[in-house]
Input
Amino acid sequence: MALFTTTEPAFRFRAGTRPLLISMPHVGTHVPPQLAARFTDEARHVPDTDWHLEQLYDFADELGASVLVATHSRYVIDLNRPPDGASLYPGQSVTGLCPVDSFDDTPLYAAGDLPGEAEIAARREAIWQPYHRQLADELARLKATHGVAALWDAHSIRSVLPRFFEGRLPDLNLGTAQGASCDPALAQALKRIAGEAEGFSSVLNGRFTGGYITRHHGQPALGVHAVQLEMTQCSYMQEALPFDYLPAVAARVQPHLRRMLEAVLDFVDRPRG
Output
């Protein structure tokens, strides 16, 4: 049997007209059949997906943003992890580059036949590398066209996950790699908007400070500003099966998301001396 094969492209992409790229690395749900056959019944439902973010950010085209969307489940390979699988949060519980357990700390593989190094390398070549190549190429295009580029890494997560944090997570978790991935003035503008979002709690560089994508691609000194937003899923959807999108609930948070992205564009559109 082949180590790993897939017939699905690694991503969907559409180019925008303004210097903003929205990345959605955890919305994918595809698991190739030969891999799904090794999963538990629970894992085949891919519960740890960042569900419905394309619908939540359906105003992205109106803003002129480019959008990069993963197709494969993070259970196949996690696009927001370093290629060597190093932990982003040393000393804390995390899932890996090719996860073997769920957010609830349950096994993904029914018979314990975990992926070896060769299989991980094959998944990395088929999915991780193309996604990151497209991401880097688009940021380079935006920078060449506009002189500056912004990256918004969009995520969502259940509001209560004891494995990763105590109690309930704030609704809007902005991450800038502890200030390293974007200009401090932009971070403060986003923090202010999030703080003004009535009915939603927020934090800057709290439990989630930005994953590999934010940390690796954010280079403010070179004119590339990266921000991660980790949202609670209860802000727009059902957090349990069947994981339905809740339009009336989502409508309350969408204006705040749009304000933050407009603030990003306002910042990068400012004349540079």
